[in-house]
Specification:
The chain has 181 residues and is α+β, with helices and mostly antiparallel strands.
């Protein structure tokens, strides 16, 4: 299972992910494939199918952000051009069923913003400046809310959210990875 946590702080976005795959039987595996995918101007956290994560890691190249087309409307870019390119990779005939059945979703950091993309390609952006997904995201969300007005570095807040989820859910374990853009 998975815990992906995202936090917007100023113009920077921090995303953290746990580092294991836990089967329904409880079997734990630590793979070399990470749940965070880092591009030159984005980070994607993947919750769900490892195969879908591999396709995104090795085949997904988002189109350039064209200011003449999108201006400052980053949400429009993510909901159209970004999604259209993602859909070609994970929603084609070979991968469509796995993508739908796996309930794979993404947390995307781009241009200082944080977006959640579900397996039906709906794009959501929470106004609170943080988000979480995977198994039991309410634990991580509670930590991010409780630490919002404290003098705690953003990386520490993300790690605290993942640690709390790990403490309360056996399907989330380290090692944790945190990246920012």
């Amino acid at each position: 299972m998975t815990c992906i946590v995202g936090l917007v702080e100023g113009e920077k976005v921090y995303i953290g992910a746990d580092g294991v795959a836990v089967a329904e039987s409880g079997l734990v595996s630590v793979y070399t494939d990470k749940k965070l995918i880092k591009g030159s101007n984005f980070i994607i956290g993947v919750a769900g199918s490892p195969r879908i994560a591999q396709l995104v890691r090795y085949s997904f190249v988002p189109p350039e952000y064209d200011r003449s087309t999108y201006g400052d409307d980053v949400h429009r870019y993510i909901a159209t051009a970004f999604i259209d390119t993602l859909r070609v990779i994970v929603g084609d005939e070979k991968n469509k069923e796995e993508f739908k059945e796996s309930n794979t979703s993404f947390l995307v950091a781009f241009k200082g913003r944080l977006f959640q993309i579900h397996n039906n390609f709906v794009v959501k952006e929470d106004t609170c400046g943080y988000d979480a997904m995977g198994i039991d995201p309410s634990i991580a969300l509670g930590v991010l809310w409780a630490t919002r007005n404290r003098d705690i570095p953003p990386e520490s807040r993300v790690e605290m959210a993942m640690e709390a989820t790990k403490f309360h859910n056996a399907f989330v374990q380290g090692p944790f990875e945190i990246a920012s853009i």
